[in-house]
Structure formats: structure tokens, C-alpha cells
């Protein structure tokens, strides 16, 4: 299984990715998680990326494309992968296409902007794994503690309301064009084109998981 999860910040990409990667035994390639790991390790890339991420802007295409290229060389990507938060611009999608990285599906999770702010303000994450929870909609068994490791959960630095609003406008301008990009490719008759699936991200986490699993059937 080789797929892209597409959707605005807070659509639930990371939440659903956890189920899909477990079900299909494939790695999750989340450029956001990779960048946050670099920030935590204080690498030169991390120090540079932090400034951009804290404003809600995008890290440069060259850096992201390089990161993903290296990640795809790892042996665990041999039998499939799930991209979460990548590609996010037309040049990133073109880089994937030009490198002939195989894709079966592009799944778009649709959530309106007014629902997103509420989701972000209650989000709590487990930094080491990228697992995310919501204080109200998807609470951990013990408040502020990761279910699996028992580690403390934290709030993401870019989940401030003002930053979320900026991330949404960046999504509208730079990432949303990928909806057209992939849906028209799917209709072009090109045998290499991934199938395009669109589903509503409104409902419970379980309801959306069902929709995603349905979408991944031939
Ligand atoms: P990234 O980490 O990719 O953030 P994002 O795309 O903005 O998406 P989020 O992680 O905020 O949302 P999500 O869809 O994963 O939602 P989640 O499942 O957590 O990127 C961060 C930054 O890194 C970017 O701003 C940029 O600077 C940089 N970056 C990353 N990739 C890049 C790239 N390719 N190019 C350039 N720059 C890049 O859910 C959100 C909340 O909602 C959680 O609290 C969750 O519990 C809750 N929730 C989930 N499902 C439901 C539901 N059904 N009902 C109610 N609540 C729900
Ligand atoms: Zn995410």
C-alpha cells in the first residue's frame, strides 16, 4: 500500500495515519514529525526549521524533497509507505512524480476551517512517536499521558490560534492546488496515476477510520 493523506492542518491526517500504517504494516512518512525531531535534536536543519514552523510558514521545497528522498532509501519503505503532510506544494508533488515514486491512492480528508481551530486548541501530542490526542474528542486514558509509553503529552508550539490561522491560509494558497493536481491526474488515463479518494473528516475518529478503510478498497 502506497498512499498520500492530503488535507488541511488539523484534518486528522496524523490520527488516521496511525491506524492505516498499523493495518498495512507500512511506515508513516510525516515531514512534520521529521522536522519536529530535527528541532528537538537541535540539528542545523532543526534550528532553521523551527523559526519557520513557529510562524506557520513552509520549510523550503529543496530541504523537504531531500529529507523525503533520503527517507525513501530506508529498507522499511520497500513494501509501501504513507505520506502525511507531504507533498504540500506543486514542486514537491512534481519531485515525487519525476522520481517515479509509486502511489496507489491519494486520500483527501475534507474538514471546514471553522472546525479546525477547536481541534487544534485541544490537541496534545506524544513528541517521540507523533501520536496525537484531543482533550475532548480523542482523550488519552490518563489526562496528559501517552497511552502506550506512559510519557507526558505536550502541546505543539504551532497550535496557537493565530499560527493555526496562518497555517490555514498557507494551506489554501500552496497545498489546496494539489487537490486539482491529483484529481485531474487520476482522470487522465495515465496508468501510473494514483486513484483519488475524497472523504469527509467530520465525525468520530472511528467513523473516519471506516471511511478511510473503504476508500482504500479497489
Ligand atoms: P505538520 O506536522 O504536517 O502539520 P499539519 O499539516 O499542519 O497538520 P497537523 O499535524 O496540524 O494536522 P493533522 O491533519 O495531522 O491532524 P491530527 O491528526 O493531529 O506540519 C507542521 C509544520 O512543519 C508546517 O506548518 C511546516 O512549517 C512544516 N512542514 C511539514 N511538512 C512540510 C512540507 N512537506 N513542506 C514544507 N513544510 C513542511 O488531528 C488534529 C487534532 O484533532 C488532534 O487533537 C486530534 O486528536 C483531533 N482529531 C482528529 N480526528 C478527529 C475527529 N474525527 N474529530 C475530532 N477531533 C479529531
Ligand atoms: Zn499531523
Automatic annotation (TrEMBL):
UniProt: ATP binding residues: 10-15, 123, 132-133, 203
Question: Could you give the domain comment from the record?
Answer: Consists of three domains, a large central CORE domain and two small peripheral domains, NMPbind and LID, which undergo movements during catalysis. The LID domain closes over the site of phosphoryl transfer upon ATP binding. Assembling and dissambling the active center during each catalytic cycle provides an effective means to prevent ATP hydrolysis.
The UniProt record gives the binding positions of AMP as: 31, 36, 57-59, 85-88, 92, 156, 167
Region: Disordered; residue ranges are 128-150
Renumbered residue ranges of the record's region LID: 122-159
Q: Which domain of life is it from?
A: Bacteria
Q: Which InterPro entries does its entry note? A: Adenyl_kin_sub (IPR006259), Adenylat/UMP-CMP_kin (IPR000850), Adenylat_kinase_CS (IPR033690), Adenylate_kinase_lid-dom (IPR007862), P-loop_NTPase (IPR027417)
Q: Which residues form the signal peptide?
A: none
GO BP, one annotated term: AMP salvage
Mind listing the UniProt keywords for this protein, alphabetically? ATP-binding, Cytoplasm, Kinase, Nucleotide biosynthesis, Nucleotide-binding, Transferase
Q: What is this protein called?
A: Adenylate kinase
Recall the GO molecular function terms of this protein's record. AMP kinase activity; ATP binding
Report quaternary structure and partners.
Monomer.
Its pathway? Purine metabolism; AMP biosynthesis via salvage pathway; AMP from ADP: step 1/1
Q: What is its EC number?
A: 2.7.4.3
Q: Which family does it belong to?
A: Belongs to the adenylate kinase family.
Write out the ranges of the annotated region (NMP). Answer: 30-59
Annotated source species: Pollutimonas subterranea
What's this chain's function?
Catalyzes the reversible transfer of the terminal phosphate group between ATP and AMP. Plays an important role in cellular energy homeostasis and in adenine nucleotide metabolism.
Enumerate the catalysed reactions. Answer: AMP + ATP = 2 ADP
Domain (Adenylate kinase active site lid) spans 123-158
The subcellular localization recorded is: Cytoplasm
Pfam families per UniProt: ADK, ADK_lid
Record-linked HAMAP family? Adenylate_kinase_Adk
Q: Name one GO cellular component term.
A: cytoplasm
